[in-house]
Design goal:
Layout (H helix, E strand, L loop, with lengths): L2 E5 L5 E6 H7 L3 E9 L4 E7 L10 E2 L2 E3 L7 H13 L5 E12 L5 E12 L11 E8 H10 L6 H17 L1
Parallel strand pairs: 3-8
Antiparallel strand pairs: 1-2, 3-6, 4-5, 4-9, 7-8
Length: about 170
């Protein structure tokens, strides 16, 4: 039984709950999202496996998930990067955000999301249970496609991407 870490609005742990129950009840819990860029400044996107419990078949950032009880969020991000895409790389935390999104299947993502970025240009070995497809795209192309076809992307990606773009702009 996989559990998520329940948190308050300040990301302080207030308990734990079985993952699917937390998503059925829409309880605020800790999560992370990882954005990966290659050496040409293209963003790695993954298409979630059709069999995922929500947002199956939608495009999103490199990976996202929840830390386990007692697991540091960055350690969890590195673990899931390996589990989903078959590689690890150093990550930098760039911001947090909170969102609440409901899905047609009755589940709700109510997350305090820690966002990390990294660079990777090596071989990708996607786990077919997690990832249907992947690609690298220029960030301008991704942003334009989200504007014209937001239904092809996950809810959290549509919220986080403008914040990542802003962070990248501040870096220059």
């Amino acid at each position: 039984m996989e559990e998520v870490i329940l948190v308050n609005e300040q990301d302080e742990q207030v308990g734990s709950m079985e993952k699917m129950e937390a998503h059925r009840k829409g309880v605020l819990h800790r999560a992370f999202s990882v954005f990966i860029f290659n050496d040409r400044n293209e963003m790695l996107l993954q298409q979630r496996a059709i069999t995922k419990y929500h947002s199956g078949g939608l495009w999103t950032n490199a990976c996202c998930s929840h830390p386990r009880l007692g697991e540091e969020t960055e350690v969890a991000a590195l673990r899931r990067l390996q589990e989903e895409l078959g590689f690890t790389t150093s990550l930098t935390k760039i911001f947090d955000f909170h969102y609440n999104a409901s899905f047609d299947n009755g589940l709700t993502e109510h997350e305090f999301d820690h966002v990390y970025v990294g660079t990777y240009t090596g071989k990708i070995k996607p786990n077919p249970a997690e990832v249907k497809d992947y690609c690298y795209k220029k960030i301008e192309e991704v942003t334009a496609t989200i504007q014209s076809h937001p239904h092809k992307y996950t809810a959290w990606f549509c919220i986080a991407l403008p914040k990542v773009v802003e962070w990248l702009g501040d870096k220059k």
